[in-house]
Amino acid sequence: MKAVVRFLCAALVVSSFGFAARASAQVTAVAPVAGFDEYNNRWDVTGGAQYSHFNPSSGRNVHAINLLGWNGGATVYFRPSWGIETSVRGLYGNLDLQGNDFNIPTNASMSEHLFLFGPTFRIMRRQNYTVGLHTLIGAAYGSFDKDFPQGVTPNQVGIFNNKLAWGGAFGAWSDYNLRPRWAVRFTADYQPTRYGYALQNEFAGSVGIVYRVGSLHK
Fold it and tell me: What average pLDDT does the chain have?
């Protein structure tokens, strides 16, 4: 009988150690995500370089062009997983025009500025990185006549006229953490605009720096 009791006690001790080990492993596995203080920040402030591939015309004789520029923005978080983002983007480049009778340079310069806002979601939060999605809408202003002679409008050579139009950005972003407050952000967006009563299917990407400010818990 004593042998049976000793056996049962030994089995209980072994089982207890096994349960404790499994519990410890589970806590260790989730701790970096659930307890990572960097994702309790109130604000993200961002800035960096911006790229887009844009077609300044709805006609077939004008080619899409690459634009380069800058971006800046901020996000206010209401929970570690979601917040409201604002984004301002400035893009600059040169039109690819054919020869014309208006003395317009075939590489006339243009610019586009976007002012966007909407929800953003941190769908994956890890100690070294985070991945998110955002849906931003707002306005885009295109200036296409910077090098045009006075009295000549862009639509005379098949280009959109200067206009404040609808714009958006729907895509994903990822932060690689450098410090508790600093990260590098990569963003890829479908960035549609609507100049000339037509939808432009624009692709945009950016790389920049993120600085985290404040705290959700005071």
Answer: 85
Query: For residue 130, what is the domain's CATH number?
Result: 2.40.160.20
Backbone angles phi and psi of 141, in degrees to 5: -115, 120
Q: Could you tell me the residue range of the domain that residue 127 belongs to?
A: 40-213
Residue 174 CA to residue 56 CA, distance in Å, equals: 29
Centre a 10 Å sphere on the Cβ of residue 203 and count the other Cβ atoms it contains.
15
Strand partners, 31: none
The CA distances from residue 57 to 37, 157, 162, in Å, are 48, 9, 12
Q: What are the start-end ranges of the E strands in the chain?
A: 43-54, 65-79, 82-94, 109-125, 129-143, 163-177, 182-190, 193-194, 203-213
Whole-number Å distance between alpha carbons of 62 and 90: 22
pLDDT, tens digit (0-9, with 9 covering 90-100), for 199-216: 999 999 999 999 999 998
Backbone angles phi, psi at 13, to 5 degrees: -65, -45
Q: Which two tokens stand for residue 81?
A: 């997983």
Mark whether 105 and 166 lie in a shared domain: yes
